[in-house]
Amino acid sequence: MAASRHTSSPESDLAEDLVLYREKFRRRLPSALRDLQGPVQGVVELPVHVAWSGMTSYDLTNPRQRMGLYRTVLHEGLRDDLPEYLNEDLLLQLWPTLRCLVGRTVRSVWEDAFPELAARGRAAA
Fold first, then answer.
1. What share of the chain is helix, strand, coil (3-state, %, to 5)?
2. Closest Cα partner for 56 from 67, 45, 66, 65?
């Protein structure tokens, strides 16, 4: 049996991995920001599949906890989690700071999909 040759380079493997990583976040996006109807007050308890490491309970009256909740959900939340735990108005309000706290891929996926987020990011810069 002949050995197969690996013809890809480390650079092309990395590029493919980045495309797959970006696609993971793109598939989770809501169809519109108005679909984000999560809470704006109170304490939010995240399920273990979202908050698998660290805090699971977030008080929305606490600015640091609110930011932490949004960062966690943007990174770890599945498609059905986003409308349940994120709120359109809060996301728009938090985005100028939040965009600096999430990874580059998460930020670019959300800003590419929702120009109103990109505009808020540019306005804050």
1. 60, 5, 35
2. 45
Encoded tokens for 31: 């169809």
Helix (H, G, I), strand (E, B) or coil at 79: coil
DSSP state of 35: G
| Average pLDDT, 10 consecutive residues per value, the chain (125 residues) | 56 66 91 97 96 90 97 96 98 96 95 95 76
Yes or no: say if 39 and 81 are a contact pair by the CB < 8 Å rule: no
Q: Residue type for 123, please?
A: A
Overall pTM > 0.70: yes
Structure token digits, residue 82 = 């986003």
Torsion of the alpha carbons at 42, 48, 52 and 58, rounded to the nearest 10: 0
